[in-house]
From TrEMBL:
Name of this protein: Uncharacterized protein
Organism: Bacteroides uniformis
Length: 52
């Protein structure tokens, strides 16, 4: 009986964490800046932008 309750609690926790990750996927961050002073913009990956 104890193992069933522990298993159910673990399953509920994992389900909750899974639902949080699904809702977090639609989160978007945007930032607008003037880039006139830069000669080039190098984008190496999502979230990493080097202004040179």
């Amino acid at each position: 009986m104890k193992t069933n309750i522990v298993g159910i609690i673990i399953a509920l926790i994992l389900t909750f964490v899974g639902m949080l990750s699904v809702y977090a996927q639609d989160t978007k961050v945007s930032e607008v800046r003037k880039v006139d002073a830069f000669s080039s913009i190098e984008i190496t990956s999502v979230g990493t932008i080097y202004f040179t």
